[in-house]
Amino acid sequence: MNILSHILGFPRIGVNRELKKAQENYWQGKYNKKKLLSIGYKLRKKHWKKQLSSGLDFITVGDFSWYDHVLNTTMLLGNIPDRHKNYDNSIDIDTLFRIARGTAPTGHSTSASEMTKWFNTNYHYIVPEFKKDQDFNFSWSQIIEEVDEALSLGYIVKPVILGPLTYLWLGKKTENNSFDVLDLLKKIVPIYIYILKEFKKRNIEWVQIDEPILVLDLPKNWLKKFYDVYKLLHGTIKILLTTYFGSISHNIKYINDFFVDGIHIDLIHGDDNIFSLNSKISQKKTLSLGIINGRNVWKSNLDNWFDVINNIKKSRNKLWLGSSCSLLHTPIDLNYEKKIDSETKSWFSFAIQKCEELSLLRDSLNSNNKNNIEDWVKPINARELSTKVNKHLVSERVQSIRNNDLKRTNTYNSRYKLQNKKIKLPILPTTTIGSFPQTKEIRNLRMDFKKGVINQELYDKKIRNEIKKNIKIQEKIDIDVLVHGEPERNDMVEYFGEKLNGFTFTSNGWVQSYGSRCVKPPIIIGDIYRSKPITIDYAKYAQSLTKKPVKGMLTGPVTILFWSFPREDISKKIIAKQIALALRDEVLDLENAGIKIIQIDEPALREGLPLRKNKWKSYLKWSVDAFRLSSSVVKDETQIHTHMCYCEFSDIMNAIVNLDADVITLETARTNIEILEKIKNFQYPNSIGPGIYDIHSPNIPKKKEILILLNKYLKIISKNKLWVNPDCGLKTRSVEETISALKNMVDATKNIRKKIN
Ligand code: GLN
Ligand code: ZN
Predict the structure, then answer these.
(1) Burial level of 357, CB count in 10 A (0-12/13-18/19+)?
(2) Which structural domain range is residue 604 located in?
(3) What Rg value do the Cα atoms of the chain yield, rounded?
(4) Is 434 near ligand 1, meaning CB less than 6 Å away?
(5) Is the same domain home to 333 and 431?
(6) Does 643 sit in the ligand 1 pocket, CB within 6 Å?
(7) How many domains does the chain contain in total?
(8) Which of 230, 344, 577, 636 has a C-alpha 20 to 30 A away from that of 350?
(9) Does the annotation mark 696 as catalytic?
């Protein structure tokens, strides 16, 4: 028996973000359609060639998309919302962009479809919209064309498509609730059958159908529907049903009955017992083992896998090795990293290297010879002893954390009194979330400094100048609690990662976040600690410019963790503790420097939620503990703020309360009733600033609108606990917009204060 290797998908953006540049140039009218299409073709061709030269047995086709692969499926099925249709009902690439962005180079503009997180990754997909009488028809032949492209280049092709049930699960009903989305399957399945037949015509042996929802706690009727659907899809060509991002043992008794020829399981993110699963899954089926992490940057310990798979091999004939999920979530090529030192670099594996790992392991298993693997894992073993990784003092300090370190001295109510005495704020205090507009000059300034064009001294002087400007603006508007404006920060996580020990940074490690947006997450390589203060100088400087309190601004431990590539040799829980301890020192230093209010942002708290409910409790416990560890070191009279970005709080309400921040500010300002209702149910026991206007919109909020919303908030939140603030940082807005909006906010607040007094 020969083991085969494949990946579930390759990153589409291009090693130099060619796709991003092509998209943006096309949107701005600088490229025509032909140019855009030709760049896509070149990228695919390049990525296929890489897969072949890395030795994979199949080339995965269908992972490319012009914006997002869920949107590709929407196009394929002709599920186009009316408002996005071209006037003449035709469908083209501009229709696709209109769904994603609300506008396209040709045709009208309208509101885009919603975008949301792809499971618990940092990739975002475009949410399909469904209505009861929705029509579906095969109307976007991209997948077939790309298959033909790859075939004409002589590759052995395995097309990938998103499965019908996952597609339905990820969408939302837009009209009414009086129908079951599963009823739409009868219109969708024939399209899938048609596509499979097209593949068959082309002599394709295998199709990969992604159904990641099989790792969730699915309702029974959904699991049953799977059976019906795959019975219909079965019989044309071989189907590899791929699951990822979690384990499937809890659903295996259903999955086992599905009419599919192979099953892929994610052995990285799930905790399935592979031996027990192997014994449960029919021998007739191909088993594809997802053993190379598609969501992180570390070399895989092939030595361990060799032994495990060798064992499984004894009892199974049809065995494949694969990436755990698509490699969409990893950077593309380690060889582009020229600045990372060679020791650190030897620990990593990006998408191309992961393809090579798969082939290496396959060959070693097929030839029953471990020699090459032994060389491959040498750096992994060496890392265990590296001084870059292990810092005794850090692990000792983590060990010595006591429960008392997680608690403020007194309860909120007694703190409240002490803080009021010390900080002396009016009722309905006004503040902002932290960042001020990041103008071109500020961006250039940081870039010049990074490139060495200007020296530390000059840079420092210019940053101080920006801080001074921001303080002046806020004093003039008469805001109560000021911020320095974060001009020195390019990104709220990168900034702290660069100052803390234990991180490394890539120069080209881009990963698609959504559409043309890419991020370059820091990599946590070792024990994290702070060797010197990070934010104190600028905070002190800002405070020296005004009599009003200036907030010290920090990014929280959970957010730093989730927006980085974590190390895999210790748990996330321990990493979070390490970051929290480093921040704890920073918090104490801020307090000692005379900063009376410290804000610790945790926008990623909700993002870290595990996919299955039975894991929520333990996650929420350690993540909340990490926040408390970082914040509880202060005296009662020092006020701790936190900020969070999504308003889906109802299900983690307890955890948020447990943070015990004195004040929480939330992103909520899209002023509809639903959100008010949520805030009302939220019942935060401490103080709260639910966001009074939407910073994502360029519209200046009118004083009248703010008054109305403030009055609504006052009906549900006590006047002694309500704060007034925009709903997120002001980084993306212009200075003019910011000043006008904040003025209206302060004026409206003063108006209401007068009435209350
Ligand atoms: N303090 C950060 C800012 O104002 C918070 C950003 C965020 O919430 N994502 O930019
Ligand atoms: Zn925010």
Answers:
(1) buried
(2) 393-438+469-756
(3) 27
(4) yes
(5) no
(6) yes
(7) 2
(8) 577
(9) yes
Site to probe by mutation for ligand 1, drawn from 474, 492, 644 as the one with most ligand atoms within 8 Å of Cβ, is: 492
Calculate how far, in angstroms, residue 598's C-alpha sits from the geometric centre of ligand 2: 16
Residue 594 region, left (φ>0) first, then alpha (ψ -120 to 50), else beta?
left
In 584-716, the DSSP E strands lie at: 597-601, 639-644, 663-666, 687-689
- The DSSP letter of residue 374 is H
pLDDT of residue 673: 60
DSSP string, 421-490: HHH---SS-BB--SB----HHHHHHHHHHHHTSS-HHHHHHHHHHHHHHHHHHHHHHT-SBB--B-TT-S
Q: Are 496 and 553 in contact (CB under 8 A)?
A: no
Is the separation of the CB atoms in 75 and 142 below 8 Å? yes
Which residue minimizes the CA distance to atom 5 of ligand 1?
A: 729
Whole-number Å distance, alpha carbon 435 to ligand 2 midpoint, is 10
- Same structural domain for residues 341 and 406? no
Q: How far apart are CA 706 and CA 671, in angstroms?
A: 10
For residue 462 and ligand 1, the question of a CB distance below 6 A is answered with no
Residues 6+ apart with CB under 8 A from 502: 391, 524, 525, 526, 527, 528, 529, 578
Sheet containing strand 238-242, strands side by side: 4-6, 319-323, 286-292, 262-266, 238-242, 206-210, 157-162, 59-61
493 touches 560 (CB < 8 A): yes
* 728 Cβ inside 6 Å of ligand 1: yes
Is 435 near ligand 1, meaning CB less than 6 Å away? yes
One domain for residues 321 and 432: no
| 96 is a domain residue | no
pLDDT in tens, 634-659: 999 999 999 998 777 778 989 999 99
- What pLDDT digit, counting tens, does each position of 685-716 carry? 999 999 999 888 878 999 999 999 999 999 99
Which DSSP helix (H) or strand (E) runs through 513? Answer: strand 511-514
- Within this chain, do residues 303 and 397 fall inside the same structural domain, yes or no? no
114-148 confidence digits (pLDDT tens): 999 999 999 999 999 999 999 999 999 999 999 99
What CATH number should be reported for the domain holding residue 64?
A: 3.20.20.210
**Strand, helix or coil for residue 662:** coil
Let me know whether 323 and 424 are in one domain: no
Distance 603 CA to ligand 2 centre (A): 6
Distance 314 CA to ligand 2 centre (A): 53
Residues 653, 731: one domain? Answer: yes
Shared-domain flag, residues 299 and 403: no
105 domain-assigned = no
Same domain, 397 and 315: no
Q: Which residues contact 731 (CB under 8 A, 6 or more apart)?
A: 435, 436, 437, 438, 486
pTM of the model: 0.95
Q: Pocket of ligand 1, candidates 481, 601, 667, 732: which has the most ligand atoms within 8 Å of its Cβ, to mutate?
A: 601
